[in-house]
């Protein structure tokens, strides 16, 4: 008698400072269901973890699968993290959530096994598995959301680095001038203050309000519709992403053959370009 084959599915959760994204994938990496819920950072880590567990339950039902067909929940979180202990440490985009044992709490509230990862490396592995880096030996991904995340895959392995800081490119200094923009971490001139979705939005508003002459200001003023603005901002921001990639490649600690900056909340899909 032929043995029945059980297709395992996975729940993926991307915890962000603004939204929590929840998806269900099959073992080929195909999306079965996707939704977002607000993070409500100010309500605290435990409240958010309870709502994550409820959303997982609803997602399983909406995807039309059975709970026993879910192999794992994969939780990606912004750093800093203690991966071995399954804890947040001091996540700068989740103020007040310090040292929360999020892996064990989500497992308890959802009654499912939970794998815990830094969000940048999790995104990088997804791109390596079924996305922009499929077939490539290595990959660097920048994720541009509330903050700037980064993930590195080398020869098929996620590189977490010491204290999960392996991909923390958001705090690379790209502007050393005295008046460089202030980063949320308290220091100046960091990539995150310029290229995160929050940074891009803040800069756009400042430029337009201050009547600075920039290519973006002129384009924003000449627009026919407001919904054209995000694409313009992306195109201007995209010019700025070459600097951190050049920096990462120059270090030669890594030798990526592909990179993939992606806006986590953009309507534009992630893209990939072969490195020289
Ligand atoms: Zn910083």
Give keywords.
276 residues; alpha/beta; Nucleotidyltransferase, domain 5; 2 domains; five-stranded mixed beta sheet; 32% helix; disordered N terminus; disordered C terminus; binds zinc ion
Measured on Cα atoms, how large is the radius of gyration? Answer: 19 Å
CATH H level, superfamily name of the largest domain? ATPase, nucleotide binding domain
Total number of helices: 8
> Number of DSSP strands?
12
The number of distinct structural domains comes to: 2
> What ranges have pLDDT less than 50 throughout 5 or more consecutive residues?
1-5, 250-276
H-E order: EEEHEEEHEHEEEHHHHHEE
**Could you say which structural class the secondary elements and strand pairing correspond to?**
alpha/beta
Which cofactors or ions or other ligands sit in this model? zinc ion
Question: Globular, elongated, flat, extended or rod-shaped: what is the shape?
Answer: globular
List the helices and strands and how they pair.
Blueprint: E1 9-15, E2 19-26, E3 31-38, H1 45-63, E4 70-77, E5 81-82, E6 87-88, H2 102-110, E7 114-118, H3 119-130, E8 138-144, E9 148-154, E10 157-158, H4 191-195, H5 197-209, H6 215-221, H7 229-240, H8 242-251, E11 258-263, E12 273-274
Parallel strand pairs: 1-4, 4-7, 8-11
Antiparallel strand pairs: 1-2, 2-3, 5-6, 8-9, 9-10, 11-12
């Amino acid at each position: 008698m032929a043995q029945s084959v059980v297709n395992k599915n996975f729940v993926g959760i991307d915890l962000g400072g603004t939204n929590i994204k929840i998806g269900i994938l099959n073992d080929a990496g195909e999306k079965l269901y996707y939704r977002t819920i607000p993070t409500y950072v100010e309500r605290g880590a435990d409240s958010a973890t309870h709502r994550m567990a409820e959303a997982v339950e609803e997602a399983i039902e909406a995807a039309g699968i059975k709970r026993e067909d879910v192999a794992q929940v994969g939780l990606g979180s912004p750093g800093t993290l203690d991966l071995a202990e399954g804890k947040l440490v001091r996540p700068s985009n989740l103020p007040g959530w310090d040292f929360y044992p999020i892996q064990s709490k989500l497992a308890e509230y959802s009654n499912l096994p939970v794998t815990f990862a830094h969000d940048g490396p999790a995104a990088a592995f997804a791109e390596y598995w079924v996305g922009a880096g499929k077939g490539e030996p290595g990959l660097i991904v920048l994720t541009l959301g509330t903050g700037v995340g980064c993930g590195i895959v080398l020869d098929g392995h996620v590189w977490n680095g010491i204290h999960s800081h392996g991909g923390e490119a958001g705090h690379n200094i790209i502007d050393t001038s005295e008046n460089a923009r202030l980063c949320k971490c308290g220091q100046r001139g960091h990539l995150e203050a310029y290229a995160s979705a929050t940074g891009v939005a803040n800069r756009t508003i400042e430029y337009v309000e201050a009547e600075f002459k920039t290519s973006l200001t002129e384009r924003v003023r000449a627009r026919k519709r407001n919904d054209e603005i995000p694409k313009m901002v992306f195109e201007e921001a995209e010019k700025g992403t070459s600097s951190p990639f050049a920096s990462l490649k120059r270090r030669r600690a890594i030798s990526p053959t592909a990179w993939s900056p992606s806006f986590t909340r953009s309507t534009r899909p992630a893209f990939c370009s072969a490195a020289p």
